[in-house]
Amino acid sequence: MVRLRVLFASCWCFVAAASFSQGDTSLIRAAVLEQWVRALSHDSMQGRMSGSSGAQKAALWIATAFRQIKLKPLSPKKSMILPATVETGRLRVRINNVVGVIPGTDPSAPAVYFTAHYDHVGVGSAFSESFPKFAPFHKKTDKDSIFNGANDNASGIAGLLSLARYFFSAPRLPNTLVFAAFDGEEFDNLGSSAYVGQQEPGKVKLVLNLEMLGRARMDSSLGHFPIVTYSRDDKWVIDSLNKYYRIAFGDTSRTKYFLPDPYPERQLYERSDNYIFALEGIPANGIMMTNDQDLYYHHPADEWQTLDYGLMELVLRRIALTVYQWLKASGGS
Ligand SMILES: [Zn+2]
């Protein structure tokens, strides 16, 4: 009996060591993702329009969450919240990007960015008055005037937080991991533009921008939910993601979970923060499960109840382990 128990004990240690050698994906959980999406898309956030008190409240909420995960500011002298004043047409908007890092073990290794925007389009017509191209969306409003933006993009921020939690649980990588929650995306990516201008990101291996993760249809021809990866010149990123997915999950099938943009004519790649990094010559891809043809896209009914948190958990665990495996294999290059 005793020997057996010892044997079990050592097996258990081995299993535990094996799982923690690549981080604990059970930290990425549907129930937690739901909790975060509900908080960020709550009516009290007033649709998180850039420059509004609702957006400010969201920035503080994200900074608190980053601190709880034990992310560090970009540098000891900096705050987690990086304010900037940006101009859009005749409007001056005070924005707040929120950025935290997990420092890498090799200061010469390029950084890896995970990004997501947290701003949305506010309440009623306030946003479309300053940005007329959104007026048609706001006309849909009758009773409910708050654009809660649960899928767009509280889901991306919940994804960002869960990846930060996961990577914090894993052995440190050579690369510094930067988690950036951008403001001003709905104002034509003004938050990420301000960030790139202010911080000069330097050597960056990869940017993965998380957008609208909460709703998708299974592709019946594939039999799974493809993780759509928006690239232009960086198709090698999709190939690498598929390669390291197979290694991370021991998947011997030829299934490709990461698929390229099926509708480049809609310019979804150019319409989010990844594009601002791509303009700097940085490989920057968008990861999106929903597209702009979605029923709730920029609609007041984009509420937390409409999201599939099990799907988010599945997709984020896939992204987490795949990227971890990739960075580990690259050894800081
Ligand atoms: Zn969005």
Rg over CA atoms: 20 Å
- Helix tally? 10
Determine the fraction of residues in helical runs and give it as a percent range.
25-40%
CATH architecture: 3-Layer(aba) Sandwich
Number-wise, the strands total 8
Low-confidence stretches: 1-19
**Hetero groups:** zinc ion
CATH classification class: Alpha Beta
From the helix content, strand content and strand pairing, which structural class follows? alpha/beta
What is the topology, as strand order, of the major beta sheet?
1-2-4-3-5-8-6-7
Strand content: 15-25%
Give the total of domains.
1
Largest sheet: 8 strands, mixed
Question: What is the ordering of alpha helices and beta strands?
Answer: HHHEEEHHHEHEEHEHEH
How would you characterize the overall build of this protein?
- Helices cover 39% and strands 16% of the residues.
- It has 333 residues and is an alpha/beta fold.
- It has one domain (23-330): Aminopeptidase, CATH 3.40.630.
- An eight-stranded mixed sheet has the order 1-2-4-3-5-8-6-7, with helices on both faces.
- The model is unreliable at 1-19 (pLDDT under 50).
- Bound molecules: zinc ion.
- The site of zinc ion (ZN) has 5 residues, from helix 6.
Secondary-structure blueprint of this entry?
Layout: H1 2-20, H2 30-40, H3 53-69, E1 81-88, E2 91-102, E3 111-117, H4 126-130, H5 135-139, H6 150-169, E4 177-182, H7 190-199, E5 204-211, E6 227-230, H8 235-249, E7 258-260, H9 274-278, E8 284-288, H10 309-330
Parallel strand pairs: 3-4, 3-5, 5-8, 6-7
Antiparallel strand pairs: 1-2, 2-4, 6-8
Helix pairs in contact: 2-6, 2-10, 3-6, 6-10, 8-10
